[in-house]
Design brief:
binds flavin-adenine dinucleotide, 505 residues, 20 strands
């Protein structure tokens, strides 16, 4: 067997300029590259582990695995591995650890921070979990579902639904993201207010450690106080501490009734107070509470077929949804009564309550169309931050004031999962502005927005994680104690730095 080395093709070392709407990354590939060669012997042995159906090594076939969703990050690798079992994953990782080859776990590759594609060093293999898509166990009595990491989220939801149960994690990428990716990014989405992030939906995990050992933590227990909760280490770790191969997920009763309303509120300060009022008055049946500024409705009216549901224009809106698994729970009248209380308390001024499934769907479409519709305004400097729910108004007021003063004519588009304190705070270019000039202010603007979030005890990354895009922010906002703890964990579990090198820490 020859032992030549594979090196990335010429011209793949230079990173493309970030697309409009993203900021300069502030890191250097050279600082995060492993040894840029993998011997042919190692490649052959890796191929032998998975067999002919389990790898891709031709450039056309590899392309989809080496570039990210938004075509922002581009990596190089001689080999994409597609193992079909935990044993194969373990054998691959064992060999990579011995040969000091980086392993980049990949799910649906819908992550937005560059965590799922390799660096351009060529010293890493991509490990797609897509072939590991079996449902291992469904226990409707225990309200648990045990699935392999490569199951697509929409499929997991369907399996649960077919058994009369709900798996509540839901996000716009659910048709292609995988449960392993969701757990590794601690995904959020639209149902966090009621059910929590992905982290809170897991009872047990199976993980292949960087040593190649398999940790079988697939416990279906609601109570297990036996020392450290090890699964938490891997949830949200973005593949930097091991490969998640399977998980025991929590299920819930399937909702049978819902009530949806678009509520106009007098000012942004009323939003968290309205949430508190509605939670109490509705028996805590609120599943969604999504804020939209008037600028959002203007965009929807101008660029979609969704008109303004109100006759009058208001400045602030909240989309509210209640759900219940009780049949004939009378949610609509509960919502009406809860809104009456809100009007009396002065935290709501008007409301449109959906009187059919189609109307509810139309109200939801307003919220879901926003990301796409705002592109009509040109490029934007975007932020996805979180603060304690009670401090959301202060964040929006301070961040808006700062942006309007910093860039004359810039248009703030603020919306988001306000019930979780998560705001999408986007600054769109002034009409007719010079795009390059506008984007050149990106780092300065983003730093200030993230500083404001930090001053309000918030986070610069509410969803999506760190990947490579936000590594420099991690260093800026985490305390030395926290950073050292993270690095110590990484060194202990992965002393040879083979798991997703260059990502997170
Ligand atoms: C249109 C759109 C809407 C989105 N909406 C949301 C949203 O509302 N909320 C939200 O949180 N995110 C959202 N995202 C981001 C993305 O969908 C989530 O981060 C998702 O959880 C990623 O899953 P994935 O399978 O695509 O993972 P990938 O993108 O493949 O990987 C993400 C990270 O996880 C690691 N990883 C993947 N699988 C494994 C595994 N089995 N073991 C260990 N590590 C692994 C990768 O190495 C990488 O670091 C959205 C993305 C798009 C494109």
């Amino acid at each position: 067997m020859s032992c030549n080395s594979w090196a990335p093709p010429e011209g793949r070392h230079s990173r493309r300029r970030p697309s409009p709407g993203t900021r300069a990354l502030g890191y250097h590939w050279s600082a995060i590259m492993n040894d840029a060669t993998i011997s042919d012997c190692t490649l052959d042995r890796l191929k032998a582990i998975v067999g002919p159906r389990g790898y891709i090594d031709d450039p056309a076939g590899k392309a989809a695995y080496l570039n990210d969703e938004r075509d922002l990050f581009h990596g190089a690798s001689p080999l994409v591995l597609r193992p079909a079992s935990t044993r194969e994953v373990a054998d691959i990782v064992t060999l990579c650890n011995e040969a000091r080859v980086g392993v980049v776990p990949q799910g649906g590759n819908t992550g937005l921070v560059g965590g799922s594609v390799p660096t351009e060093s060529g010293g890493e293999v991509v490990m797609s979990l897509a072939r590991m898509s079996k449902v291992r166990d469904l226990d409707p009595i225990n309200y648990t579902l045990t699935v392999e990491a490569g199951c697509v989220l929409a499929e997991v939801q369907k399996v649960a639904r077919d058994a009369g149960r709900l798996f509540p994690l839901s996000l716009a990428a659910e048709g292609s993201c995988q449960i392993g990716g969701n757990l590794s990014t601690n995904a959020g989405g639209t149902a966090v207010l009621r059910y929590g992030n992905a982290r809170e939906l897991v009872l047990g995990l199976e993980v292949v450690l960087p040593s190649g050992e398999v940790w079988n933590g697939l416990r279906r227990l609601r109570k297990d106080n036996t020392g450290y909760d090890l699964k938490q280490l891997f949830l949200g770790a973005e593949g930097s501490l091991g490969v998640v191969t399977a998980a025991v997920l929590k299920l819930f009763p399937l909702p049978t009734d819902s009530a949806t309303a678009l509520v106009a509120i007098p000012d942004v300060e009323a939003a968290p107070r309205l949430l508190a009022t509605l939670r109490e008055a509705s028996g805590d049946t609120i599943t969604a509470f999504e804020y939209m500024h008037r600028a959002c409705l203007d965009i929807l009216v101008a660029y979609t077929d969704l008109g303004d549901p109100f006759e009058e224009a208001y400045t602030h809106y909240v989309l509210v949804e209640l759900t219940s698994s009780r049949r004939d729970s009378g949610l609509r009248s509960l919502l009406e009564r809860a809104l009456e209380t809100a009007f009396d308390d002065g935290v709501a001024v008007n409301a449109v309550i959906a009187s059919s499934g189609a109307q509810a769907e139309r109200l939801w479409r307003m919220r879901e169309s926003l990301s796409e519709a705002q592109k009509n305004l040109g490029v934007g400097i975007k932020h996805d931050v979180s603060v304690p729910v009670s401090r959301v108004p202060e964040f929006i007021v301070r961040a808006t004031r700062y942006c309007e003063a910093a860039i004359a004519g810039a248009r703030v588009v603020a919306f988001g999962h306000i019930g979780d304190g998560n705001i999408h705070f986007n600054l769109m270019q002034p009409e007719g502005a010079d795009v390059a000039e506008f984007l050149a202010r990106g780092t300065e603007i983003t730093t200030r927005i993230h500083d404001i979030a930090a001053e309000l005890d918030g986070s610069f990354s509410a969803e999506h994680g760190i990947g490579v895009l936000k590594k420099h922010e991690l260093e800026r906002y985490k305390s030395p104690v926290e950073l050292n703890l993270m690095r110590a964990l990484k060194r202990t579990l992965d002393p040879n730095n083979i798991m997703n090198p260059g990502k997170v820490v």
